[in-house]
Amino acid sequence: MNESLTVLVLLGHTLVITGWKLVGYAGTLMFTARWFVQVAASSARGETHVPPLFWYMSLAGSFLLLAYFIFGRNDSVGIISNLFPCLVAAYNLHLVASRRRAAAPSEPATE
Question: What is the spatial distance between Cα 75 and Cα 87, in angstroms, rounded to a whole number?
Fold first, then answer.
């Protein structure tokens, strides 16, 4: 995935696109798009709100960026900077799941 897929020249700068860079771009896009989800959810409610989709997108974006920094770049700074948001998103999704389990009607006991 480190082979050059295409080369772009933008404003006098050469940009080499590889498979790993596409993974990194997808992670960045996912991580950025989650804010649009949060703004839309807050706007619909008329107050600040972070929907579960925000955390799913955070987790997906973090995993994609971790893959890019681990396998594509071998960059410890990128790994560390994306590991913490991954853990936070996973914890928040755990809280969402716990709340849903607690709110679910319990099944009647069968004896």
Answer: 19
